[in-house]
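== Sequence and structure of one protein ==
=== Format: two labelled lines per protein ===
==== Data for this protein ====
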Amino acid sequence: MTQQVAGFLRRELPIRLAHRIIDLNQAPQMQDMPSVATVRDLYVTSFLELLSVDKNIKNLGEEEKLASLLEGIYERHAGVLVQMARGAFELRAAIRSGSGSGNDGVDFDKMNDVHEFLDRFYISRIGIRVLIGQYLSLRQPPVENYVGIICSRTSPYEVSAVFGPLDWVSSWNTNEERCTIRKNISAYFSLRLIPL
């Protein structure tokens, strides 16, 4: 089964990376920021590496080669979130200093095109990391109640007991109201518990 997944990833990931490279080249006001250029170069490198692998994964050796490549990409891309945040910071600094491209006096918070780009970029990044992470996890020895990175028996009650009710809720609720789990404390659902 992992060989089929590997073939899918070999065909799909270059497409997704190519879309992000185009977006990074055309990123509104951000394409010239040093951190964004670093991310673009990282994506180009990963894109070219993937193209070096045959599209049709025919045997275990080819799958092993792709898996090794994907592990490297996954690790190398771990800092992309911080790099893009740094790019946004660089844009803010350029706007404040008056060196931003035609954005004199514009408030960063009101730059909707930049925010839309960042939203698209981050959502795509999550998708790429889930695909690679799931595949790499499927190659590992099985873990009870897990299918790759997805836990098939996540209990909200048990999660809240580990993280505490305030921590569990505060990421969604700025009022930091307490979360109380009532009724069926034995309910389970599937959830990805591993951070991306």
Remarks:
- The chain is about 60% helix and 5% strand.
- The chain has two domains: 2-140, 147-192.
- The domain at 2-140 is CATH 1.20.140.20 (Butyryl-CoA Dehydrogenase, subunit A; domain 3).
- The chain has a mean pLDDT of 84.
